[in-house]
Specification:
It is built from four helices and 18 strands. By secondary structure, the protein is mainly β. It has two domains: 118 residues, DNA Polymerase III, subunit A, domain 2 (DNA Polymerase III, Chain A, domain 2); 117 residues, Proliferating Cell Nuclear Antigen (Box), CATH 3.70.10.10. The strands form three sheets. A nine-stranded antiparallel β-sheet has the order 6-2-3-4-18-17-16-10-14. Strands 5-1-7-8-9 form a five-stranded antiparallel β-sheet, with helices on one face. A hairpin with a 3-residue loop joins strand 17 and strand 18. Helix 1 runs antiparallel to helix 2 and helix 3 runs antiparallel to helix 4. It is elongated and about 60 Å long. The relative contact order is 0.17. The C terminus is likely disordered.
């Protein structure tokens, strides 16, 4: 049997909003040690999404055995629209009905309980091992600032060059209408640490990425006030949103490889 009770049901809604443009059918994996996890590639096999909600992030977490639930995110999103942001959400599966998942939305303030049942899917997926990596450069900055930069630069071009040096992190775009550069310098705020831009660097890194994917990643902005961007040459970039002691949402994106071949 599986029972997950989330006192802040809005968290589940925010998680779904952050990934539903990238993913469609996914497996949510549950275990007593790791909690609720998701790992899936987008349909183009360009970006990888990795989510973990630790067991202690739930008001009640019961997982009698390792379990994988195949879920259509569009269907789940439709059901979660029936939940208010202050609802308590409980997810259950029963060994007697392994092909369904029940959702209960409770609102003590309005003395209301709603029950839904959703069909699960049989989804074949390969779980990729993501090794712990020491990155050449890491930037921690306000997540809303990162979202604004990505949105602004996407109006200029399709590819952003992210360059991290000891002076700061630079976002550069070139397009048909011109060029744009935005630089965020290393800046630590003691009064409001979440507004700091902190750069840790072993060596400078400069890589190119399709900006439309970064814009998709920033849908996770409501999950955290800060975002951590980690980069190394010849490795996928990691964009991480830590979920206030509950876990994390990570997006992996391979850098664009410049085509140096010339046409005859």
């Amino acid at each position: 049997m599986l029972e997950l009770r989330l006192s802040q049901g809005v968290l589940l809604k925010k998680i779904l909003e952050s990934v539903r443009d990238l993913l469609s059918n996914v497996n949510f994996d549950c275990s007593s040690s790791d909690g609720l996890c998701l790992q899936s590639m987008d349909s183009s096999h360009v970006a990888l999404v990795s989510l973990q909600l630790l067991p202690h992030s739930f008001e009640r977490f019961r997982c009698d055995r390792n379990l994988s639930m195949g879920i259509n995110l569009a269907h789940l999103s439709r059901l979660l629209k029936c939940a208010a942001n202050d609802d308590i959400i409980t997810i259950k599966t029963d060994d007697q009905s392994p092909d369904t998942m029940s959702l209960m939305f409770e609102n003590p303030k309005h003395d209301r309980i709603s029950d839904f049942e959703m069909k699960l899917m049989d989804i074949e997926s390969e779980h990729l091992h993501i090794p712990d990596t020491s990155y050449e450069a890491t930037v921690r900055m306000p997540s809303q600032e990162f979202a604004r930069i990505c949105k602004d630069l996407s109006t200029i071009g399709d590819t952003v060059i992210i360059s991290i040096t000891k002076e700061g992190v630079k976002f550069s775009v070139s397009g048909a209408i011109g060029n744009a550069n935005i630089i965020c310098r290393h800046n630590i705020s003691v009064v409001k640490p979440e507004e700091s831009t902190v750069i840790e660097m072993k060596e400078p890194v400069s890589l190119s990425f399709p900006i439309r994917y970064l814009n998709s990643f920033t849908k996770a902005t409501p999950l955290s006030s800060t975002v951590i961007i980690s980069m190394s040459h010849d490795l996928p970039m990691v964009v991480e949103y830590k979920i206030s002691g509950a876990g994390y949402m990570r997006f992996y994106l391979a850098p664009k490889v410049e085509d140096d071949t010339m046409e005859a």
